[in-house]
Amino acid sequence: MPTRGMPERPDLQHFRRQARTLQRAVRAGEADAVARIARLHPAPPAEAAALPLSAAQLVVAREYGFASWPRLTRYVRTVAEHGWDTGLRAVPAQHPADEFCRLACLTYGREDGPERWAAARELLGRHPGLTAGSIWAAAAAARPDDVGRLLAARPGLVSQPGGPLGWRPLFGLVYSRHDPGIAAEPVLRTARLLLDAGADANDGYLFDGLPMPFTLLTGVFGAGELGRAHQPPHPHWRALGRLLLDAGADPNDGQALYNRMFEPDDSHLELLFEHGLGTGDGGPWKARIDTLPTPAQLLRVQLRWAVTHHQAARVRLLDRHGVDIAAPFTDDGPPWAPADGRTPLELAELYGDATIAGYLRERGVPRPGPDPAHDLVAAAFRADPGAVARVAAEHPGAAAEARRRHPGLLVWAAARASAETVALLAGLGFDVNAYGRGDAPAEGAWETALHHAAGNGDTALARRLLDLGADPDRRDQRFGATPLGWARHFDQRSTAELLEPLTAPD
Hints:
The chain has 506 residues and is mostly helical. 51% of the residues lie in helices and 2% in strands. Helix 8 (144-153) packs parallel to helix 10 (184-196). The longest helix is centred in the N-terminal third of the chain and has 16 residues, at 12-27.
């Protein structure tokens, strides 16, 4: 498991300096440095003063999640070859063709959205000939005649990065969102022209050098943390995705799976399963970056999200395709999918999803052993005050153990459960002002329960939290905003009116 976060735009000299610093610290006898060597080196030298640089390099590599120094250096070379600087999306271009590409394409930044794409359409309307001399603009606009003519004159353009974003032409086609009503025929014909000319169906970029690639499939499927209004799928995502998969795109696309997991729609999974999702070796990107999850690990992460976010249909779909629905989670995933040893059934019961829990039991998944702290939280998420009172009375230490395991749980309850669950947890001593995460039942010092009630416009829950002692002046740990700030940001007038007289002025 990595103990360090990978920096943006990683540089090999940076890692070399870290290794030399570690070597010097170990040779000087610094206790922390010696402990790092002992923890991660398989055979540390008996004499710290004799530590070779290669040993320090191995430890640094393992701290970043790589098995060896050569694998870390290979990753850095991959970033140099495939990295993409997200700052390019914010730099206006002088030439109309370049500016059209910049505005037309989904770039997974906060600039994405209908206004930006409308500006691209307006620009193309004013300069209809801007695609004649730019294969990158012609691809983004899905103009196969221009693409074909430009390729006939210069076949090498198919694999040449260009335009304001430095992307190859097919990437611009599948990330383009300038026209939600665009016809399928020119899009698919443009894609076939580029693929037939040698475009790589597994093309992708590492946004700011981060290790999960944004591939062609990622762009086709769209969606993400900002939702479909700002990050929609391609208007013809299904046909375009099938075309890429038939051309050899690997279906085990971790970023595409992540971006589409927030909504219950499983149509993307069905298409990917048709083409081997969950099988194989992970394709060319896994070969380049060995820290990427295996196909099986990708699907187990999807299972955990589905269980904790009440996506029963997805659980059934994953089960039908052979994903292990019984085993505990022991592979480290993202922060919201830790290797905590819990089973899918434990999670379903813990967070009150009777439908998923019932399905898993019907499928023969064994129930976990007795655990009063677990039972207490599960009763609260079922909003069952009688069961909460019974477990608390029979096991006096259960509430303290539950708070120790889940200090930020009340935030998840406020974001995803009922006001009754929030009140029951507060009655068990959970801190109403604790920081936690509202996107997943995982610990993290992000925001409070009142932030979520305010941002969701849930006035009744906000009043309940205030009555329980919630602090309206407490600021979240990511954006430095009060609950009132969240209400205003999400244009929730009812909670803003409630919180305005209670919140200290900035």
